[in-house]
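=== RUN LOG ===
request id: a7f3
mode: sequence -> structure
chains: 1
length: 349
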Amino acid sequence: MRKTRTRASSGNPTLTDVAARAGVSLATASRVLNESDRKVGREHRERVLSAARELDYRTDLSAQAMARGNAPVLALLVSSIDDPYFSALAAGVADSARDHGVIVTIAITARDSERELTSVRTIRGQRPRAILVGGSRIAGNPHTDALLAELRGFADGGGRTLFLSQPVGGLGAVHPANTAGARELGSAIAGIGYREAAMVTGAESLETVAERTEGLRQGLATRGGGISVVENDSFDRSGGYRATLRLIRSGRIRDVDVLCAGNDFMAVGAMTALRDNGIQPGRDVAVTGFNDIETAADVTPQLTTVRFPLAAIGRRAADLALDPEAPLTEDVSVPGQVILRDSCPPLGG
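=== RESULT ===
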């Protein structure tokens, strides 16, 4: 005889409905659908899964989180989603999450420390398995202590957390080796003849900006070079355009032989500003970036940059966060590689 399709009064199938349709106990249905460590026989397991499909049952993640202490979710905080830097990191995080059987939720902080703190507080209430906090740390951030308190409280409750940026307060991190990579870039371009640099970059308070600026100064100084001017703006393509436009209008662009952008996204905007004002990137002034996003090799001229394995960084951070045996206090600094391209040809070559 055909089984009657049973639904809860609300119209949504419940775990009880699935158990009844499969002809098993509620505990058995729960073990199958909530992926309990306790084994269920193959026949009963197939009956439960078949009943769940027939009833279009969906696991209640909130209830599962209450039962387990967390939900099969990894929360990722990033500054933006239109910046290829964060897209690449997120891709690596998503690959790891898939392998660990969890899903990724993304919160956008817009480099707003208060918004970041509020996001972490909200996410904690959803009981994810892990939280990854991306985006450069901010010097003098008034919300740092409160953020650390939230993350430590999350960890004390069994959650796992890491920074995808500079480590803070003894918590672990996986991040690009910004200072070392910038130093190598400065040394490399000084080695092919460049001495006078201008820099267009993000806000001075961003630690990534400070690290890359200092590294470039050190690298250029190996051949007697230096950075004569720094223009700060938003850490994105539009910021690169505006900062470069100010250099052009003030005439300071004529005093330098290389324009160093704080990241590739800014470098793309910088090159557009140069061309819009009759200055040819790679011919009239060299241009460099950081990160080696996918479009760095597609722009004209191809962009000299520091390649960081962004997807691998995201994956490594997620692997650590989702491995209950892995330590969460390590500072993993991932080295970069200088990639010399046509935007920065040898002087005199």
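=== NOTES ===
The two ends are 86 Å apart (CA to CA).
The first strand starts at residue 71 and ends at 78.
=== END ===
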